[in-house]
Design goal:
The complex is a heterodimer of chains A (361) and B (246).
Chain A lengths: L6 H7 L4 H14 L6 H11 L5 E5 L5 H6 L5 H12 L2 E2 L7 H14 L4 E6 L12 E2 L2 E2 H10 L1 E7 H5 L25 E4 L6 H14 L12 H4 L10 H6 L9 H5 L17 H4 L45 H37 L1
Parallel strand pairs in A: 1-2, 1-3, 3-6, 6-7
Antiparallel strand pairs in A: 4-5
Helix pairs in contact in A: 2-3
Chain B lengths: L14 H9 L2 E3 L3 H25 L15 H29 L15 H14 L14 H30 L4 H6 L1 H6 L2 H32 L7 H4 L1 E3 L7
Antiparallel strand pairs in B: 1-2
Helix pairs in contact in B: 2-3, 2-8, 3-5, 5-8
Classes of the chains: A alpha/beta (361), B mainly alpha (246).
């Protein structure tokens, strides 16, 4: 493996100066929340470690993850990471196509068996033997299994790979299945979102390439450093939430004042992501800042959690659309009615008994 | 009826009353900790239902001052969390008392489903509530049907609400907090906080329905059964209205 270039060599070949390289190392350290002591460590790792090849495969998806990824705010991070991985296999970004591309994939799998990272964008549909998603003439699920076999670790990009996203929403006709339910014997890191934030994506991949291990994961297998808090916990509109000042309609005075979007169905309180801190497009904005509630795109099954514009989820198990309050009120109404009827009969019975006792008396 | 006695001193005391007081006894059923817990718990549930409903559907926006001077929704949430903690620790205290109190204190926490006799009595109670049995039986503690309902509606319902509630609280307390360490696993089961919110919300209605039935039945039995019900949870003593056994 000595013939493989180090990260540093790749960067220098890209025309990046030593000074810029050091800047990149400090930026990465701070983005990952590691502190200044880690800057020389990152630099050292980048200089001495052979780069880790990444294979990026695409299943049922919309390519929004790739679109987000190539918009990573720090151009250096983008260039470096992108050039490091596109060299191997990414059928959307690579220059090669057709048989050439497939050959490149095979080549990488064989050459770096057990050492490459498999990044999966989208998910495999399992119905009809996976015929709903064909890559290179074969069902995607076969490519996924084949590529996963020799992978060191797997990154599930976006809501599709992590949870299934829209194609897995009820009734899920193609049986689109998240990666971790198909590949069960490899370490999998989920980076959910539709799409995930670019800096989160490059941050995760840089961490893995640099430290040669997975970042700390939470219970659902998401990197804790980016998915440890809810949008709500760091939302700049939070003071209006605590004050009880809400937007009541999209065009009202409160909306203009930038009040809390909770009543408009904002899913910030139930969504784990870094949008309210990292934000999007070089930290320009994020949905809540532009006046629309969070839709909870980085949460499991977010398409099936009712309307984007209501805090109370519709529960479709009851045949008709109803939320917890409607179900509860109906049940309470039925029980209340039953209680009233029962009480009436009880009273009648008691009266009857009393009369009888009097007669018998 | 007992024959009239000639030694009745009080003019307002009917002879049959005197005869009955000389026979009928009361049993001390609910000890003080159980009674105090019952009413504290009832108050906590009332606060939790109202504040919880408002958390799901907030009251209209209020403009008292700038956001820094106003904490309306914050207080609603505080009331919910405070009442939730009182309910939780009250319930833990109640579990403690199940071990150290009298045997009636244990009825809430189990259903003797292995006893055929128990199910026969449940069936009898069902018949009583369907107006098929002429007269109810006497019970010192909960009647078998009540015990069953208490266990499924209340004990399981409140346990569910405590666990899901603390898991939701852990979201605000965040990773590394005690609640997150103890109850974060719930998120590992449910996976979507919105889903957990919905389940917790449905749980409220479960408890509301329990309350409706509980209050109705307590009043009905107080009037129609052969023993005291409502006052028993105040004084702790169960009094009986007749001397016949069973």
């Amino acid at each position: 493996m000595s013939q493989i270039e180090t990260f540093y060599e790749v960067m220098r070949r890209q025309g990046i100066t030593r000074r810029s390289f050091m800047k990149y190392c400090s930026l990465t350290a701070s983005a990952l929340g590691l502190g200044p002591a880690f800057v020389p460590k990152i630099a050292h790792a980048m200089e001495t470690k052979p780069r880790t090849p990444v294979i990026w495969v695409h299943g049922l998806e919309c390519t929004c993850c790739s679109e987000s990824f190539i918009r990573s705010a720090h151009p250096l991070a983008k260039d470096v990471v992108l050039s490091m991985i596109s060299l191997d296999y990414d059928d959307t970004l690579m220059a090669a196509a057709g048989h050439q591309a497939e050959a490149a994939l095979e080549d990488t799998i064989e050459k770096y068996r057990g050492n490459y990272i498999l990044a999966v964008e989208g998910n495999p549909p399992l119905n009809e033997d996976g015929m709903f998603c064909i890559v290179g003439g074969k069902p995607f699920v076969e490519q996924l299994r084949h590529a996963a076999e020799g992978a060191k670790a797997i990154i599930s990009w976006g809501a599709c790979a992590s949870y299934g996203c829209v194609q897995a929403a009820s009734p899920n006709p193609t049986r689109a299945t998240p990666v971790h339910k198909v590949i069960t014997d490899k370490p999998i890191i989920k980076v959910p979102g539709c799409p995930p934030i670019a800096e989160v994506m490059t941050g995760v991949i840089t961490y893995m390439l640099t430290f040669d291990r997975l970042p700390e994961l939470d219970r659902q297998g998401r990197p804790a450093m980016f998915y440890g808090q809810r949008i709500h916990d760091k939302c700049y509109r939070r003071p209006h939430f605590d004050a009880g000042q809400f937007v009541e309609a999209w065009d009202d005075e409160n909306a203009r004042k930038g009040y809390c979007l909770y009543k408009m169905g904002c899913k910030g309180p139930t969504t784990y992501n870094a949008c309210s801190t990292v934000r999007w497009n070089e930290g320009t904005s994020f949905p809540i800042q532009s006046g629309h509630g969070c839709i909870g795109c980085s949460e499991d099954g977010f398409w099936d959690q009712g309307s984007f514009y209501n805090r109370l989820t519709n529960i479709n198990q009851f045949g008709v659309e109803a939320n917890a309050d409607k179900v509860g009120l109906t049940a309470a109404g039925v029980v209340g009615g039953a209680v009233a009827v029962h009480a009436a009969i009880s009273a009648l019975k008691r009266a009857q008994k009393k009369t009888q006792e009097k007669v018998e008396g | 009826m007992a024959s009239p006695s000639t030694t009745v001193p009080a003019h307002d005391l009917a002879p049959e009353d005197l005869a009955s007081v000389s026979h009928q006894t009361s049993v001390y059923v609910y000890e003080a900790p159980v009674r105090i817990w019952h009413w504290v718990n009832a108050a906590a549930i009332m606060v939790l239902c109202v504040s919880g409903y408002f958390i799901g559907s907030p009251p209209p926006s209020m403009q008292i001052g700038e956001a820094v001077q106003q904490f309306v929704f914050g207080y609603i949430r505080f009331a919910h969390f405070a009442a939730g903690m009182i309910l939780t620790f009250g319930f833990l205290g109640r579990i403690y008392w199940a071990f150290f109190g009298n045997h009636h204190a244990r009825q809430l926490f189990y259903v003797p489903f292995w006893r055929v006799e128990y199910w026969r009595e449940v069936l009898f109670e069902v018949r009583w509530y369907l107006f098929l049995a002429k007269e109810p039986k006497k019970y010192v503690g909960h009647n078998p049907l009540a015990q069953l309902a208490m266990f499924f509606f209340f004990t399981l319902g409140v346990s569910f609400m405590i666990v899901t509630g603390l898991a939701l609280y852990a979201e605000g307390a965040q990773e590394g907090s005690l609640t997150a360490d103890l109850f974060g696993w719930v998120h590992g089961l449910i996976w979507n906080s919105q889903r957990l919110h919905t389940l917790h919300h449905l749980g409220m209605w479960w408890i509301v329905i329990f309350m409706m039935i509980h209050i109705y039945v307590a009043i009905r039995e107080d009037i129609m059964s052969r023993q005291s019900i409502v006052s028993t949870m105040i004084s702790g003593t169960r009094t009986f209205k007749d001397d016949r056994p069973d």
